[in-house]
Amino acid sequence: MSKQIGDDIRALRKSRGITLKDLASAVGRSVGWLSQVERGQTEPSVRDLARIAENFGITISFFFRSASRREEERGVILRNEDRMPIGSSETGLTEELLSPSLSGSFEMIRSVFAPRSASEGTVPAHPAEDGGVLISGRLSLTIGTLEVDLAPGDSFQFNEQPYSWRNDADEPAVVIWVVSPPIY
Fold first, then answer.
1. What is the pLDDT of residue 89?
2. Model-level pTM?
3. Less CB within 10 Å around the terminal CB: N or C of the chain?
């Protein structure tokens, strides 16, 4: 279990540009201890994990999403029932992390855009490549200055561009989104 937790902590920390020293300080632990956690050499307590999760804006349950699975599955397979929601339906967007691990070169996310919802402004460009495919519903996506209306089966891909979205329909829009490198 500790190897997967450590990999996830390292991936989250790096994707947010946080140093070992800064995260260790934020959770009240030493750099050496945090380094050992990230390398799977020691297991953090539930209290330490709660502090780490809070620092990343996620729930502690994120780290236990595959805890009941066989060791050889962890980090390789993520079962449907083990998916963890990310975000809030209050914003019009709910997401589930589909990737079994954050230590790879990309992550997969299932994004559900509520009916009659829109992004709260433009999502700033970030140092990542985004892509996806609309599975169901309709979605308007603005990438830089390009505005497109997507139908089921349409896909997209862009690199380091600001974007926004809008769902004008009366049904949810579901997108399988891929981001490289991982940002969650």
1. 67
2. 0.74
3. N
Taking residues 99-121, what's their average pLDDT? 90
Query: Is 151:105 a contact under the CB 8 Å cutoff?
Result: no
d(CA 94, CA 170): 16
26: Cβ contacts below 8 Å, ≥ 6 apart: 51, 55
Report the CATH superfamily, name and number, of domain 2-64: lambda repressor-like DNA-binding domains (1.10.260.40)
With cut-offs at 50, 70 and 90, classify the pLDDT of residue 1.
Answer: very low
Fold of 81-180: Jelly Rolls (2.60.120)
The two tokens of residue 124 are 């700033």
Burial class (CB in 10 A: 0-12, 13-18, 19+), 52: buried
